[in-house]
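Every protein is a chain of amino acids, and every chain bends into a shape of its own. The fold becomes a row of whole numbers, each drawn from a learned catalogue of backbone shapes. The protein below has been through that process, and both of its lines are reproduced in full.
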Amino acid sequence: MLKHFLEQSLQGEMEAHLLEERSLGKSNRRNGTSIKRVKSNVGEFELQTPGDRSVSFEPSIVPKRQVVLTEQLEGQIISMYSRSMTGPPVRLFRNRQTSSGNIWIFLVCQ
């Protein structure tokens, strides 16, 4: 559950990053994924983290070189999943400050 949510969030951040790059007239696109081993309270697992050709993508939900998830982040994710069991799908609204303004990322986890 935690792994799935984080991977979907990273994909959403990559989409927002590529949209911003295109709006600035830069030619950038996806360049596969890499494996990142992350530790959490529920154990250790591998995340598929997306990359881009210009190597300018800086994820914010699980930043580069961060290998331990905070208890606060884990708690928020588990809380959102538990609420979605009785209601609509989980939606994460993440505001990211960029050079050209704010980007809102909307994720729906199913």
About this structure: The chain has a mean pLDDT of 77.
